[in-house]
């Protein structure tokens, strides 16, 4: 991160009325008391986002947007490494295109925002503000693709999309959100299938390794798949309140859109054929997952990979103020070569207030520099995830910080995995199923007979949906609802 | 640029009907014959963009989008270096906010696309699709800013905007385009003024040094300034057809939006005051400038800084095919450590066809590897800007390529500057003014009495507008139109 030559604005700038230390920490609702309120408190107080003056929309404030920028940069690198290029397609989709794929339009119509007027004229045809771009991209692909030599087409787009939502929640479900959508075309079904699975794996490894969020990869049931897809793959995470969150999806579209948009190529054998397609996406809702998986009652907890500041340095002034400030600056300058660092030398706040403030903002590591540290040629480090304090000698400052950040990252993943495992229940009968969903919730791993009726009744009676059918897990047994023979393992949960 | 592990799609994939060499080059209209058609030919044939199936919109194809990505990355780095952070504000602006700043709404209303329906409901209040974001950002700033300690606020946003345009042109003027908009708040007028000028200088140095496009920086006349600004600063470039293009603008907004949106802070002296603001932006139209400033009758010419491929390697096969291909791969592998490289080893096209194709796509440097080069332990390099061919010994391949790319970059700037200077006319009387605007056009540097009537009459009679009032250029003399005493130097031109 470039060193700012002028003061950077938002993180750490508090209103004067927040300056009473105790009140400040009290202001976050405990998770056990009201998880929803805790979530909103963290989003607003850590200045990740704010409510916009437009129904269902949020503003991504600089501290929250910086997290998204890091997610974007890392994913973009991984997409390019797997051969993809970026492009940009129009925001508006003429209604007639939107209506060409029957299942797709049925799925998305209730959520569309419509432009009906441009400048001083009523439009002859309404324009949908894109809820997703399969249709408008399909029109272009039918123009660009002619021969098998034009395949595969491996295009990704970073953009905003709009879905008219009734109940919204910062990051998790908003009318407008930011995402990427990959849209690929292939010569064979096998190649498209391979691509859809490859991109699911890119997401899985990104979310698990980079964001330290354990997920269950698998396939969606027919009832939960994307409108227009043949198969939808998903990765599902478990949030701190034991509700599941779909973190990313990858779709094998078959030839559904190719037929609706006439995307054909002349194959080597001289035959005109429809292409096979995939699409895949991850959105800003993943920032919500970060908050809900790692956060605690003191506020946000960020993995060092995406934290806007990985290290905050707090000078403990009182006596030897000048020496302490000089040493703090030296520590900051050394660490800035390798890490994203914030030196909090604001004179108007006490060290204790700063500790609370930066903990609330989720900075993975705090370094304290006080007179005693000075004398001993060391700094005192405090891990955000465990609160543990250790001493780092000045002569191995960079290595010590790197090791501690590594430990925080591993610690976050381990803790999240333990939480998920402790809250995943193997269930064989519907009585237990219901009582878990009325009580502790979490994931229920159970057998399902694959009948939509059973899926539907479970949903109606417990609020739990099939989050995914995990890959390669089949067992002999009976359906958790109807008791008939079943082989398919399914993960059920109440979900965001 | 990461090395693709699977074939990357677009650049270099041609339809079979393009494979006749001569026809292929003929397909670009000569600039002298029809500059507009030349421009569209280059945009479409180099696969920079394509017309979208939505009125006035284009698709940014991967080759064109890759240029924008490089522009974005470099500008973003420069914005952050000058202390700015990114955020994201909503796409939609409720009509009532939009109407609060009178001059602003008058300026933008005719260009707004309106959302009137969401999901299944007619909206109680229409939503403007943002043509620019001063208003919705103003609402947020009034909430976030309370004390002088909250200042300055230095926020930038990368996003899409929509302006309902009647006459459109790829990149230059489209209904939807991509841009960044900086929005800052300051404690004093001086500080805001300094920021507006600082950002103009960031743009000037970026456009001149990085894109090799010479520009004239200055202030807009009152008649040409941004709707709602006190002063607008601009950088103006001269395109290959002697029309001017506004490349970026930076506005000193004074307290106009602060008053309309009630953005106040408690100053150190205990007084409640309105903030002073700036906004500044550059858009995807700058890609159009790149094409029109550097391009020639063979197609696109790209500066190495933004070229998706800086070097294309063409094996000259015929005899010793295997050795030539192996040597070409070796050259590619070595250069990929430092440059963005494309090895064109497609067997289905001739070297001559490839030369034309990559010239049309503007790749700054072509390296040919043939049996004779092999024997002499060298490659043959051809510069895109001059066509000049030189030999680079294998033992200093990297240094040789780096030097040639440097020379191409400097050569492009020099050529563009010479063109602009040759087409800038110092004019003292309106007869000459008119004949230049009816003939060769270009920039006219003349004195203006600062009366709006003279500006308006010049525009009506010649089609030329005041592009900018250059900084620090004042002279004693008479107005080019009315002949009354005048001191203000102005650059006039017909503009995009």
What does this structure look like?
The structure is a homodimer of 496-residue chains. Chain A folds into 3 domains: 62-293, Bira Bifunctional Protein, Domain 2 (BirA Bifunctional Protein, domain 2, 2-Layer Sandwich), CATH 3.30.930; 311-410, Anticodon-binding domain (Rossmann fold), CATH 3.40.50; 424-493, C-terminal domain of ProRS (Translation Initiation Factor IF3, 2-Layer Sandwich), CATH 3.30.110.30. In chain A, a hairpin with a 6-residue loop joins strand 1 and strand 2 (58-60). Helix content of chain A is 35%, strand content 28%. In chain A, helix 3 (62-81) packs across helix 7. Chain A is globular and about 80 Å long. Chain A has 496 residues and is α+β, with helices and mostly antiparallel strands. Chains A and B meet through strand 2, helix 3, strand 3, strand 4 and strand 5 of A and strand 2, helix 3, strand 3, strand 4 and strand 5 of B.
Largest interface: A-B, 78 and 77 residues
How far apart the termini of chain A lie comes to 33 Å
Number of domains of chain A: 3
Decide which structural class fits the backbone of chain A. alpha+beta
